[in-house]
Amino acid sequence: MLALLGATTLVLVAAVRWMLPAAAGETNLKSPQNVEVYIIDDTFILQWNRSEPSVKNVTFSADYQTLENDTWVKLPGCQSVASTKCNFSSVKLNVYEEIKLRIRAEKDSHTSPWHYVDSFTLFGKAQIGPPKVHLEAEDKAIIINISPPGTKDHGMWALDSSSFTYSLDIWKNSSSGERRTKTVYPRDKIYKLSPETTYCLKVKARLLPRKTGVYSPVYCIKTTVENKLPPPENIQVDAKNHIYVLKWDYTYENVTFQAQWLHAYLKKIPGDNSGKWKQIPNCENVQTTQCVFPKNTFRKGIYLIRVRASDGNTTSVWSNEEKFDTQLQITPFPPVITMKSTNDVSLRVYISAPEESENKPVNHHYPLIYEIIFWENTSNAERKIQENRTDFTFPKLKPLTVYCVKARALIQEGKWNKSSVFSDIVCEKTKPGNTSKTWLIAGVCAALFSIPVVIYVMKLLFRCISYVFFPSSKPPSTIDEYFSEQPLRNLLLFTSEEHTERCFIIENRNTITAVEETNQTDGEHKKYNSQTSQDSGNYSNEDESSGSKFSEESLNQETE
Amino acid sequence: MTSRCILQTALLVYFCTTVLAMNYDLLQFQLSSSSVECQELLLQLNGTSKGCLKDRMNFKIPEEIKKSQQFQKEDIIWITLEMFGKTSDIFRRNLSSTGWNETIVEDLLATLHRQKEHLEGIMEEGNFTWDHRTLLHLKRYYLRIVQYLKAKKYSTCAWTIVQAEILRGFFFLDKLTGYLLN
Q1: Which class would CATH give A131-222?
Q2: How far is A84 from chain B (nearest CA, A)?
Q3: Contact A159 B132 (CB under 8 A)
Q4: Which of A31, A38, A73, B85 is in Cβ range 3.0-4.6 Å of A115 for a Cys bridge?
Q5: Contacts of residue B30 in chain A, CB cutoff 8 Å?
Q6: Where is pLDDT greater, at A170 or A485?
Q7: CB-CB: which of A97, A161, A301 is closest to B107?
Q8: How far is it, in rounded angstroms, from Cα A329 to Cα A300?
Q9: A139 DSSP assignment
């Protein structure tokens, strides 16, 4: 029973608790949806959608918080707002600071949960609004004067007002409106228009990096009647030694001209810079279509030049503003070249700046490029190279050859280029190659060493041949030692002379035939022959004495 | 045939990178010479340092600039553009109290402008990304300087402090532009 009561109470309590939120569900608010921040210039808008459009009398409130400060501050202009957007432009915030927003719905005393917006910077979300344009018509041009979007000194674009670039669309108001788009300065002129024609234009601003603004409203203006005197055209500036020559074209005669200059950077700054144009010296009331002024009139920088004509009664409009960069007007001086031949059959080239006649050296913003022409002295084939280094080498050339080089300095920037005259020609002969030199020395040494070797070898060879084919008949020297006596020698060796003897035969004991003996030795032999009558043969002997002894002995032996 | 194709491609890539490398080298040369000129001009502006110690201010130059952290090459150009642009903006303000030589200030503005034009031309042509955070930090830094000048009513001391701060900024910028060279 009690348990039953307890259970029922519990169920009832649960039911009530469940119902209560449902009852308050009519006033249980949902936070707003699709909350977006829209910023154009200095106008900050917070916009959202109702999550329950059927619920009436709902207001919305928003807070903001900076990253530095952790507290939520009420967003001015966005407290208890009945509509679905609010303007909080009056908030005093650094546009570059990161902030967070939150918004909720409110009705009576009930509030929805907060809807948070991710952190952002006002500058990051800002869009560029339309610039303000003021127009002035000429006969063939329109002068435009653009004011940057936003408030000038404070606000979103406080620091960027001179960083805007403007893009302009212009067309003729007539039916066949061909649109021309140009990038213009805040104070600029649009040329090449027809007189007495209505032109319409609109301008938008851009900020780097990628922020493009909204177009301004369309402005239309009619150009005036054609002027009697046209403006000068084709303005050019030439630099010569210490002067600049400003030239232009003009069709009419008997007019005087006036030239003015302005710092180019002033064009980028919005506002009236008409008072900043200055007269170029020697170029006021000139009657020729040129004027000359010294170089030191202009310090290094970029300038704009304009010219107008006057015939006493009427003055023409100003000509096109011609950009004049002093850096690009400088004709560089020709460089000075030094060339040296190096050991490995190459030529090393050094380029140096010439000594300036003025005391201050020219400091180029655009680095110099050198155009070098290189050729062999004997041939006409030229090699042209461009180099930005001042110290480089021509490798692998022919040894002991004369090469010549000349160079000129170039300044190049986009379509501008200015070159100096060519330097003096410098010629240099390459050294003989290291390798050929070595070979030469080696060859010479080899030759020197080889000659005695060859001679020696030849000698040996000759000896060998002569030994084999033409042996010597001279006895070896050892024989001479042993056999010093002549007869023995004669016995042992062949003599060169051949002794021929006439032999005689003793046939008759009695008759002794005296035979001639060709033996040249002695008459004793003859004698001998006559004495011995026996049938002893005569032994032919060279040596008579020895021979006779021998023969005597043999005779004695025989008889015994 | 394939190997020849590969060789040609390799040569093309090599020369492309060489050409691109050269472009950055040339740009670095131009930026550093502009920076040197600007610093020389700034130094020619005579500042009175006496009695200005009390006006010193910590403008809190962004940490990433101070530490010369290594940025992408495009980011370095954006940073340079921002710094040159804001410096130019500052020096066009009320300088009457300083007694500085007007021609020197004009030369400074002209140098900054010339380099800015050149960089803007480059960045407009290409499709470059940029580092939001660093640029925002830089904008905040320059806003602090401008607000300081306004608060001090463009006094001589305030300008002297700002001159020193801008010179300091160029010093850090030089280190950054060094990264354009590889």
Answers
A1: mainly beta
A2: 31
A3: no
A4: A31
A5: 365-366
A6: A170
A7: A301
A8: 10
A9: S
Average pLDDT over residues A249-254: 89
How many domains in chain B? 1
From chain A, the residues in CB contact with B85 under 8 A are: 160, 162-163
Q: Tokens standing for A189?
A: 């002129």
Please indicate whether, in this complex, the C-beta atoms of A264 and B110 are within 8 angstroms of each other. yes
Return the pLDDT at B27: 83
Question: Is B120 within 8 Å of A96 when comparing Cβ atoms?
Answer: no
- Residue span of the structural domain in which B128 resides: 2-181
* Distances B93 to A159, A162, A451 between C-alpha atoms, Å: 11, 12, 95
Query: Which pLDDT tens digit goes with each residue over A117-152?
Result: 999 999 999 999 999 999 999 989 999 999 989 876
Residue A252: helix, strand or coil by DSSP?
Answer: coil
Over residues A357-373, the pLDDT tens digits come to 443 445 555 667 888 99
Report the topology of domain A233-325. Immunoglobulin-like (2.60.40)
Cβ contact A162–B92 (<8 Å): yes
User: What's residue A129's pLDDT?
Assistant: 93
pTM: 0.66
Q: What is the pLDDT along chain B (182 residues), one digit of tens a residue?
A: 566 666 666 655 555 555 444 477 778 888 888 899 899 999 988 877 778 888 888 999 998 888 877 788 888 889 999 999 999 999 989 888 888 988 899 999 988 988 888 888 888 777 777 778 888 999 999 999 999 999 999 999 999 999 999 999 999 999 988 888 76
Which pLDDT tens digit goes with each residue over A36-46?
A: 999 998 999 99
DSSP per residue over A340-407, as a string?
EEETTTEEEEEEEPPPPSSSSPP--SSPPEEEEEEEESSS--EEEEEE--SEEEE-S--TT-EEEEEE
Q: What is the pLDDT of residue A102?
A: 93
Q: How far apart are the first and last CA of chain B?
A: 34
- Using CA atoms, how far residue A142 sits from A137, A194, A203, in Å, is 5, 10, 14
CATH number for the domain harbouring residue B167: 1.20.1250.10
Asked whether A128 and A135 are in contact (CB, 8 A), the reply is: no
CA distance A301 to chain B (A): 6
Cβ–Cβ gap A301/B114 under 8 Å? yes
d(CA B83, CA B81): 6
User: Which of these, B81, B63, B62, B84, lies nearest to B144 by C-alpha position?
Assistant: B62
CA distance A146 to A133: 5
Question: What are the residue ranges spanned by the domains of chain A?
Answer: 25-126, 131-222, 233-325, 336-431, 502-559
Instruction: Give the HSE-up count for residue A363: Cα atoms under 13 Å, Cβ half-sphere.
Output: 12
Q: φ, ψ for residue A384 (rounded to 5)?
A: -110, 125
User: Which residues make Cβ contacts (< 8 Å) with residue B37, sequence separation at least 6?
Assistant: B111
Question: Which residue of chain A comes nearest to B27, CA vs CA?
Answer: A366
Work out how many CB contacts closer than 8 A connect A with B.
Answer: 73
How many residues make up chain A in this entry? 560
B111–A301 C-beta distance less than 8 A: yes
Query: Is there a shared CATH topology between the A25-126 domain and the A233-325 domain?
Result: yes
Give which of A153, A269, A150, A169 is closest to A211, Cα–Cα.
A150
Are A72 and A64 a contacting pair, CB within 8 Å? Answer: yes
The CATH number of the structural domain formed by A336-431 is: 2.60.40.10
CATH second-level architecture of A25-126?
Answer: Sandwich (2.60)
Closest chain A residue to B121, measured at CA? A208
User: CA of A338 to nearest chain B CA: how many angstroms apart?
Assistant: 26
Average pLDDT over residues A48-63: 88
Cis check: omega of the bond before A186, within 30 degrees of 0: no
Whether ipTM > 0.90 holds is: no
DSSP code of residue A267:
G
